[in-house]
Design goal:
The chain is of the alpha+beta class. It has 2 domains: 188 residues, Jelly Rolls (Sandwich), CATH 2.60.120; 109 residues, Orthogonal Bundle (Arc Repressor Mutant, subunit A). The chain contains 12 helices and 11 strands. The strands form 2 sheets. A 6-stranded antiparallel sheet has the order 2-3-10-5-8-11. A 5-stranded mixed sheet has the order 1-7-6-9-4. Strand 2 and strand 3 form a beta hairpin. Helix 7 packs across helix 8. The longest helix is centred in the middle third of the chain and has 19 residues. The chain starts with a strand and ends with a helix.
Length: 302
């Protein structure tokens, strides 16, 4: 097991950002903001491990601590650190430090891959990277300039008349600074033209949209311009799991959201996400989430 631990820079700006997030999100929960891709998060207590999907973007904790588990690796993100995901990846996430008096406060900003590529092109960055050191999620010390830009982005939520004009510019600034900092090698892996990481990222994006379809490994490998064995090896390197396991997690998480948010019954939810057998759906759901569908949804609602 590996845990990232990185010393934090000065906390003055982070404390001010924590005040802003707390004011915008005074109660426990998650808030999708008026800025595309930006969400705020608050937890008043330590949470149980939860299966979720991280997408291309940056997440920071401005107060408290959060962990993301990928296989046997644990990545911890505390104030003064930044967590960047380069591909859509199922992870097990938990808030590891929070209380009513000092809640966990965090923010996540997702990027469009096309925008990252455009910024990299304007910066004339190398489009060829070696793939032997690729990691889909990395934690690094939070750059002061990135922190400043995130603070300015948050402040736009209280200036809605400027939001439409300035938010895209600040998001591009954040991407440019990430491409100039410690996270750059991993981001460049995914956008490097013709690299195995880019081909796998495209496959992951396709699977995210088409997870209900039956998988044909040879077809996926051909789309990625690889042999089936090479494709499986690179897919596991990038995501930490096989294509079939990845599809299974996407299906089960989608079914969970259908039952939780749209009150779809378990048998219907399984069929809607691509399962032909209700018993297989129930078995695999229980294996991933720890309880059968109906019991799990009842617990979450409580």
């Amino acid at each position: 097991m590996h845990t990232d631990s990185i010393s934090a820079p000065g906390t003055g700006d982070i404390s001010r950002l924590a005040v802003s997030v707390s004011r915008l999100l005074p109660g426990n929960g998650d808030q999708v903001t008026a800025i595309a891709g930006l969400s705020l998060h608050r937890r008043d207590a330590i949470t149980e491990p939860t299966h979720c999907l991280y997408g291309l973007g940056i997440g920071i904790a401005v107060q408290g601590c959060k962990q993301a588990m990928i296989g046997d690796e644990i990545l911890a993100c505390a104030p003064g650190q930044s967590m960047v995901a380069c591909v859509d990846l199922p992870v097990i996430s938990r808030v590891s430090q929070a209380s009513v008096d000092r809640p966990f406060l965090g923010m996540m900003l997702k990027f469009e891959s096309a925008m990252v590529m455009q910024v990299a092109e304007r910066m004339h960055l190398s489009q060829r990277m070696k793939d032997n050191a690729f990691r889909p999620i990395t934690v690094q010390a939070l750059d002061d300039a990135v922190l400043d830009a995130l603070g300015r982005l948050i402040s736009l939520l209280e200036e809605p008349h400027l939001l439409e004009v300035l938010a895209p510019l600040i998001k591009e600034e954040i991407v440019a600074r990430l491409l100039s900092g410690a996270h750059a090698p991993q981001l460049l892996h995914v956008i490097a033209a013709g690299s195995p990481s880019q081909h796998i990222a495209k496959t992951v994006a396709w699977l995210k949209l088409n997870f209900r379809q039956a998988l044909r490994m040879d077809d996926l490998a051909a789309q990625a311009h690889m042999s089936p064995s090479t494709f499986r090896q690179h897919f596991r390197t990038v995501t930490g799991m096989s294509p079939l396991q990845y599809q299974k997690q996407l299906r089960l998480q989608a079914a969970r959201q259908l039952m939780l948010n749209q009150k779809v019954d378990a048998s219907s939810a399984g069929g809607l996400v691509g399962y032909e057998s209700a018993s297989q759906f129930s078995r695999e759901y229980s294996r991933l989430f720890g309880e059968p569908p109906q019991r799990d949804i009842k617990r979450m609602r409580l």
